[in-house]
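Our example pasted here:


***
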Amino acid sequence: MRNTLCRALFIGAAICAVATRADEQPGVVKFGAILSLSGPAAHLGDTQLKTLQLYAERINAKGGVLTRKLILRHYDDGGDPRTAAELARRFTERDHDKPDHADFVIGGSATETSMAIAPVLEKAGIPFMSLGAGSRIVYPPRKWVFKTSPTERAAVRVLLADMKKRGYTRIALLAEDSEFGKEHAKELRDQTGRNSLGRKTFGVALELDQNYVPNDSDIAQKVVKVQSLAGLQAIAVFGLGQSPAAVTRKIRESGITLPLYHSHGVATDEFIKLAGKDADGVRLPGPRMAIADLLPDADPQKPVIKAYIAAYRERYGEPPSAFGGFAHDALMLAIEAIERVDTLNYEEVQRSIKLTRHHVGVTGIYEDSPGDVFSLHPASLLMLEIRGGTWRIAD
């Protein structure tokens, strides 16, 4: 009896030791990245991967995470949700000695790929830091899923508040026929609709609502429809990549001088380069990164943004885009959470992320608000304006 009890205690102690080693694997901390490095969202994934590689190097140069080397393993989903889901399954490997084991995963350069990755990692119980824009990535809240980019809900709210401030009550919408365009268009419709009291929250009426296919012919047809409608006071354009610049050029070439608004998806120097002189006067809700030099020294984000831009420029010889900032913040939030609890245990890490309070990042200030999902502070987006070929804080 005594020998049996001792043997049971010995086995129990051994199991505890194995469990501890599984949570506290010595040597390395591994994280995975699933990004769009090819396909229509490649301009997002490129700067995101460069950011993750840069900061993995910098973190290791300072001693790593929990004194362990930080290792990045990344894959290209090509912008395809099915590919993204298959790649996510690779990172559900629980054996820390396997190459594809991940203590956390960053990725989903776009909403659709993030939505494909999320249920795979949710089922496996692995923390996932999404870089996609859509609020549906985290609404309704998911235990294991977090995001670092501004939502279309916040961006549209800032845009409409500026329109209301300027007295624009009749507007047109041209939304790209993409998930990004559709999500922002839906949010604009919802926020210009009537509330439970029958009142329009922002007092703005959507007089023309059009989707456009990103080619010259369809864009031209939609601009003609804008020209034909009298009484419009402003135009909103929602899209990613090159098409918003093409729409901007076509609108101005057509002689339309109405105030022109875009989404935060084009808050990059590349948009100004593509749209040229026609970008002048464009307004949009954007992150502080676009106007880092104009921020007051008292702004808590300024030193974080300036340090990121300087490090990226030194490493790659060019400035990063705001999309790279999403990746920077995702990595720093995950590392902060791990170091807060001093463990790689998945449950502890996801709980620690939810304990985040006032984390100052490149994109904004992150909180886990009671009764809400982990998110950016609403004031993280500013109304910006392009003047003289550069970004300015709008008056």
The CA atoms of residues 338 and 349 lie 6 Å apart.
